[in-house]
Design brief:
Blueprint (H helix, E strand, L loop, with lengths): L1 H7 L2 E6 L1 H4 L8 H16 L3 E6 L2 H8 L9 H24 L5 E6 L1 H5 L1 H16 L3 E6 L13 H12 L3 E6 L4 E2 L11 E2 L1 E2 L2 H5 L15 H12 L5 E5 L5 H6 L6 E3 L3
Parallel strand pairs: 1-2, 1-5, 2-4, 3-4, 5-9, 8-10
Antiparallel strand pairs: 6-7, 9-10
Helix pairs in contact: 3-5, 4-5, 8-10
């Protein structure tokens, strides 16, 4: 099923979470970015179009500004994201430049999706960039976001972006293989749910844990994102982005995940 979805989709959105982007030292994992860029370039050569929703601004900020690591004040958090966003985009740019590809940064808030004119402009910009062979890298604008305008997690941002771009497929990369009936990091007998057609129903039969180390969202936000994407007919895959050559593995059917499909 996953391999078929990858084959059929022309427009793919990849959401990459902080735990996928960060190495064991808590800094940006350059090896992952290089591998991801190589595989993405191969997809583009096959005629696919891609958009990336990338977390990691705060992780990149912390790796650059260690002296702010323990500061919890909102102004320092936003300042960290301002520093980190530069580092994050620089890392993405270097990775894709090796394959002759350019990236573009798009920073959004919830208000952007609630305003008709902004939404139209965002959509036009996305289409223009992709049609010209540029890879948009989308993130929430954490430097200016406050609770009233904050989306809150990049799973939801990715779902909104997939709708905005009329994507064929949304892939949520996490640090687990997919949706389990229980937390696989705590329960060795947890069972992977490989296909979901009714998200409201599956919620009743699984145990949803808390968020992980670096990220702002857990399984609950991923279910919400998948439900939102599915409401517009966009199938969603939840899988482990940390696996070796994960895009190729998904395309050839060797990597597991959870597929969310319309009823």
């Amino acid at each position: 099923m996953i391999a078929q979805l990858m084959e059929d989709a022309r427009k793919i959105i990849f959401k990459i979470g902080s735990n996928t982007l960060a190495g064991k030292d808590g800094k940006i994992n350059s090896a992952f970015l290089a591998e991801f860029a190589e595989q993405s370039a191969a997809l583009i050569k096959k005629g696919k179009q891609i958009v990336i929703v990338s977390s990691g601004a705060q992780v990149a900020g912390l790796s650059t500004m260690d002296k702010w690591a323990r500061k919890k004040d909102i102004h320092y958090r936003q300042a960290l994201c301002a520093v980190g966003q530069v580092e994050l985009m620089g890392a993405w740019r270097r990775s894709f430049n090796q394959y002759g590809l350019q990236i573009a940064q798009i920073l959004l808030t919830r208000e952007d999706f609630n305003d008709t004119n902004r939404t139209l402009n965002m959509r036009n910009t996305l289409f223009t960039l992709v049609d010209e062979g540029v890879i948009p890298v989308i993130n929430e604008n954490d430097t200016v976001s406050v609770e009233e305008i904050k989306i809150g997690d990049n799973d939801t941002l990715a779902a909104h972006s997939s709708i905005l771009w009329s994507a064929d497929l949304l892939i949520l990369f996490s640090d687990v293989d997919g949706l389990y009936n229980n937390n696989p990091k705590e329960f060795s007998q947890a069972v992977l749910v490989e296909e979901v057609h009714d998200i409201d129903e599956i919620r009743k039969s699984i145990t949803i844990g808390t968020t992980n180390n670096f990220g702002t969202g857990g399984i609950a936000t991923k279910l919400d994102a998948a439900k939102l994407a599915l409401s517009y007919g966009i199938p969603t895959i939840l899988t482990d982005g940390g696996k070796f050559r994960c895009i190729e593995a998904l395309a050839n059917g060797s990597q597991k995940g959870t597929v969310f499909l319309a009823k």
